[in-house]
Amino acid sequence: MAKLSMTVNGRAVSGEATGNRLLVEFLREDLRMTGTHVGCDTSQCGACVVHVNGKAVKSCTMMAAEADGAEITTIEGIAEPDGTLSRVQQAFQDYHGLQCGFCTPGMVMTATKLLEQNPSPTEAEIRHHLEGNICRCTGYHNIVKAIMAASGQDVSKIAAE
Amino acid sequence: MPKDSGIGAASKRREDVRFLTGTGNYTDDINVYGQTYVYFLRSDVAHGRINNIDTSAAAAMEGVVGIFTGADFEGIGGLPCGWQVTDRFGEAMQEPAHPVLAQGKVRHVGDPIAAVVAESLQQARDAAEAIEVDIEELPAVVDMKAALEEGSAKVHDDLTSNLCYDWGFVEDNKAAVDEAIKNAAHVTTLELVNNRLVANPMEPRVAVGEYNRSNDESTLYTTSQNPHVIRLLMGAFVLGIPEHKLRVVAPDVGGGFGTKIFHYAEEAFVTFAARKLNRPVKWTASRSEAFMSDAHGRDHVTKIELALDADNNFTALRTETYANMGAYLSTFAPSVPTWLHGTLMAGNYKTPLIYVNVKAVFTNTVPVDAYRGAGRPEATYQLERVVDKAARELGVDPIALRRQNFISEFPYATPVAVEYDTGDYFATMDKLEEIADLAGFEARRKESEAKGMLRGLGVNCYIEACGIAPSNLVGQLGARAGLYDAATVRVNATGSISVMVGAHSHGQGHETAFPQVVADMLGIDESMIEIVHGDSSKIPFGMGTYGSRSLAVCGSAMVKATEKIIKKAKKIASHLLEASEGDIELKDGQFTVAGTDKSVAWGDVTLAAYVPHNYPLEDIEPGLEETAFYDPSNFTYPSGAYCCEVELDPETGRVTIERFAAADDFGNVVNPMIVEGQVHGGIGQGIGQALLENCVYDSEGQLLSASYMDYAMPRAEDVPFYVVDHSCATPCTHNPLGVKGCGEAGAIGSPPSVVNAVIDAIQSSGKKDVTHIDMPLSPQRVWAAMQG
Amino acid sequence: MYAFDFEKPTTVADAVAALADDEAQPLSGGQTLIPTLKQRLAMPSKLVSLTGIPEMQGVCKNDAGEVCIGGATPHAVVAAEAAAHYPALAALASNIGDPAVRNRGTIGGSVANNDPAACYPSAVLASGATVVTNNREIAADDYFDGLFMTALEEGEIITEVRFPVPQAANYQKFVQPASRFALVGVFVAKFADGVRVAVTGASNDGVFRWTEAEEALSANFSPDAINGLTVDAGDMIGDLHGTPEYRAHLVGVMTKRAVAAAS
Fold first, then answer.
1. What keywords is this UniProt entry annotated with (chain C) (predicted)?
2. Interchain CB distance below 8 Å, C178 and B711
3. CB contact at 8 A, B526 and B5
């Protein structure tokens, strides 16, 4: 067991972890922050994406010990402290970008980073950026639309009949 | 004008807030004090005889709480099958036992051999590796046709063969169909495979079993689409726990698509072991485990023949299908290739003679059961492919050929025993031609060709049947359950409402859409109404959510219960207003005496019901809570027309979906935003089946597509924006909301148009001999077909 | 996963020392290793993380004009920082896996693992790069040794990869639809003294140089130069996603496209 300390959503946390503890296990089981999900075991689905030192990473494919001393943001830390949803979160609700909600934390974390790097991405850029986030419910239509809307683009003409 | 609340409004989903902020409560988020973890040791061979299992070394390992094998389940029920099909000859299907843990033999890769319960998952897994299993490997039964040959190895030694049933429908039509095909002016024949799929909801299955010794009550938290069904099947048929001592909770569930309908061994195991060990037991599937333990879908091999007369009218249809059951009969498996498939073979067409033959086969593979659409996609795919092939053979426009044969008068009784109540197939086709911009296709094709690409356009229609019912009929067809649903509307003293429903929401947005209906009926704000679902201790006995039934069946129950509420509330209001009950009108949450300005508010009436000081106690009981059960008199029949446009790279065979349009008739729509989302998701899965997804076994029964490394899930880049329309609405005639169901349409309606489009693209290059490619139309398959 | 210890040294020397322990294994970005550990396909006693070693990070250009990439540099950093020096390499890095994978996965990890469908080995081989380890320099042509096999010895760490910069280069990846690894990937690099073509994803022997194409392209650097050339399907991988014949065909198509796109 090694001692770990990190900052999660602005709060200093510490704990102990064996060498084989994954970051996602540490978050879900030790910190009981269950918003981050696990949907696969081959690092493809992206339900587990969190931000580590400002970068989107798959928390199921990072050892907890690697995150010692890191600044981590999870889905629980995305909304304002008063509960106001972030623009990405709000757009996902406004444009029905989620159904069962299981992939949603990873989608929001990935999309949030995308818009930091590319404030007005094209449809193709968004779709490419979601390569590592699998959704089984939405057919991606409203996820892509929500991300475009969150970036301030007019989405009223998308697939208009 | 779109409404901003109530029925027809695109109300934003209230459940989204918890999902978007990480505060959902999925089964794996549940941890029970003192819980242990179970790891299942699963077979790595497809077929074998278990000679010995030695758990002694494992049992002595650190942290191990208990180890179980099939021997621990001697005398305990196996997993039951919920549907008994009767074959062509009037005999019941062959129905093998399905033990919770393997007994005597393992029958597919992933079949659980032993279960190790330990203080940690790692300890459980370590100990499982120390179990010594002596398995004598037997020849694997994988190919369905070979499985039926004389001398094939048998999946189940106690059955006469690997044939589950040989079903004919309608058997009395057979001779006439054969005759019509023999005498037809033209017969189009197509042999095809409906590829095996894995449903892959993003949340893997989880089960937590808990036992409370003080009151002898078991609780199972599980990723289920239908907690009451699980309670009934597991309690009554597997573990012998009476309903009042068994609670099944399905909290937030991360997608189902059918595969979370069924009762699984792991659920029974954790409930059983929690009682035995007096410790909570938790199981969380890894994705790899899901691939070899979740029921798979589809997997039909079909020959279809369509007969036409000299004027291109469809005169007869004959199909022969081999349907894979896998190693055991999953909960509803036998019904999928039969009653959910054969009854749909008329499609949108007035073909007078139809005969469907289905041979269901046991193989050494994971059990196959319902997956989004369940039987209806298989029916639609073969029919819409053969119609397209016929049009190409006859040199006629595929849309015109369809239109010529459309059913045009309703109600319409098909030759496969169902009666369509409403529909307008011309209207949806007209709408499709408009929204898909068929007129602009040739110009788009030229643009593609200028880039060295091929472009193709494919169209198909579909009809589906939702809200399977009525119970007395399905009982005759072999269902071992009722197919009604139930709702309890509990009006609280202050006027807020809890609606307890049998339906379960795992992405469908019931928590938002169902209150829209009740709010509309009562004229109160949606936010005053809360839906309660997923807990057998809170909700009435309902059958859950599958088959696009929730609104049509459970929603109807909710309407009936709300009508009872209104009736009683009016009585109370008439007392308060000192008026005749018949003169009371309810509008915008106010009870008014007709023609007067005398009124009393909703909240005053509800308060009176619970604080009955001024109340007609001699006439009516206090309180305001009503339950209704609703058993539909018929299926509902959504229908539509879909169009796909593809671009094909002739050098690599790679297909991209450039445009996709869907015109659906869902009858009335409660929340158009949610309905469109359901269609989008269905189309995404249909495109997945058509281009990407394939669950493959090798000849030894090893699962080759056992993770996302080899099972191709659709990604955002694989699909376009979809143009969807549901304005061509012919309301259902037999349920109170006039709704039909929209959950599966996209998955049913989309695969044929994708394949039709690819064939169109290939043929546009002059390769007219390429008339079919089996799904998925992967680059290598398309390229290989074009080389031929 | 089996139980193991974890160590995160801050110098190459400490990492090498830590790896001297029995069954210790280096952990770079972990994007392949961690899924392998989850399947219990590896049983290390200890993981030695290489991500905390400053000298193994970053992209620079040396006096010889080579682009030098620290062994523990994530793909995303290569994509950003190599773009000005070696655009084709940066483009390759920007298309490995997905954004989250690129933030963790490293060049050293990829090259050390030598997955037959990984992208980087094709760039290393086609560029004639030098694989620098804690105790030697290995020429690309001497480095790759078949599926998952390399010239690396037990405990040896890739500290840097040095890429000569070609006059023109391009990487074309045809993705395997499920894993999104390369079903076939071709890296073409045109140097003053000739063209090098390296193919990943396709062969039973892992990444390889397509010498026939190299000769033809060295004489005439145009897509047409590939006409009539084929790789032997008998050497190609056959699996769910592509027959050997299909892969052999794609090698030709992707090579032509890489030549056409090379700049």
1. FAD, Flavoprotein, Oxidoreductase
2. yes
3. yes
Tens of pLDDT, residue by residue over B316-330, are: 999 999 999 999 999
Question: Do A110 and C8 make contact, defined as CB atoms within 8 angstroms?
Answer: no
The domain that contains C76 carries what CATH number? Answer: 3.30.465.10
Query: Residues of chain B whose C-beta is under 8 A from some C-beta in C?
Result: 122, 125-126, 129, 286, 288, 651-654, 691-692, 694, 696, 704-705, 708-713, 715, 778-780, 783-784
Q: Which of C163, C183, C202 is the last residue of a domain?
A: C163
Question: What is the per-residue pLDDT across A2-57, written as a single tens digit (0 to 9) for each?
Answer: 899 999 999 999 999 999 999 999 999 999 999 999 999 999 999 999 999 999 99
Instruction: Report helix, strand or coil for B685.
Output: helix
Go through the domains of chain B in sequence order and give each one's CATH number: 27-138+202-255+260-293 (3.90.1170.50), 296-468+634-787 (3.30.365.10), 484-630 (3.30.365.10)
* C263: pLDDT strictly greater than 70: no
CATH of the domain at C232: 3.30.390.50
C200-206 average pLDDT score: 96
State the count of interchain CB pairs (< 8 A) between A and B: 194
* CB–CB contact A130 B716 (8 Å): yes
Which B residues in the span 498-517 are in contact with A, Cβ-Cβ below 8 Å? 506-509
Give the nearest partner residue to A46 out of C2, C47, C100, using CB atoms.
C100
pLDDT of A161 reads: 47
The alpha-carbon gap from C35 to the nearest alpha carbon of chain A, in Å, equals 5
Count of residues in chain B: 788
Q: What does B268-310 look like in DSSP terms, one character per residue?
A: HHHHHHHHHHTS-EEEE--HHHHHHHS-EE--EEEEEEEEE-T
The Cα–Cα gap between B268 and B266 comes to 5
Domain that holds residue C22: 5-49
- Tell me whether 0.95 is exceeded by the ipTM: yes
Among A88, A69, A102, A84, smallest CA distance to A147 is for A88
- In chain B, which residues have their Cβ closer than 8 Å to the Cβ of C243? 780, 784
Q: Are residues C100 and C23 in the same domain?
A: no
Same structural domain for residues C145 and C86?
A: yes
pLDDT tens per residue across span B711-755: 999 999 999 999 999 999 999 999 999 999 999 999 999 999 999
Query: HEC profile for B693-730?
Result: CCCCECCCCCECCCCCCCCCCCCHHHCCCEEEECCCCC
Segment A15-20 long-range contacts (CB within 8 Å, at least 24 positions apart): A17/A64, A17/A65, A18/C3, A19/A63, A19/A65, A19/C3, A19/C4, A19/C5, A19/C6, A19/C46, A19/C47, A20/A63, A20/B122, A20/C1, A20/C2, A20/C3, A20/C4, A20/C6, A20/C37
Per-residue pLDDT band for A160 (boundaries 50, 70, 90) equals low
Any bridge partners for residue C199, and if so which? C186, C208
In a shared domain, residues C153 and C174: no
Count of the separate structural domains present in chain C? 3
DSSP B34-50: T-EEEEEEE-SSSSEEE
Percent of chain C with pLDDT strictly greater than 90: 100
Architecture of domain A87-150: Orthogonal Bundle (1.10)
pLDDT (tens digit, 9 = 90+) per residue, C98-128?
999 999 999 999 999 999 999 999 999 999 9
My answer on whether C156 and C120 are in the same domain is yes
pTM over 0.95: yes
Strand partners, B485: B630
Residues C173 and C154 in one domain: no
Class of domain A2-77 (CATH, top level): alpha beta
Averaged pLDDT, C192-205? 97
B756 has pLDDT over 80:
yes
What CATH number has the domain bearing residue C19? 3.30.43.10
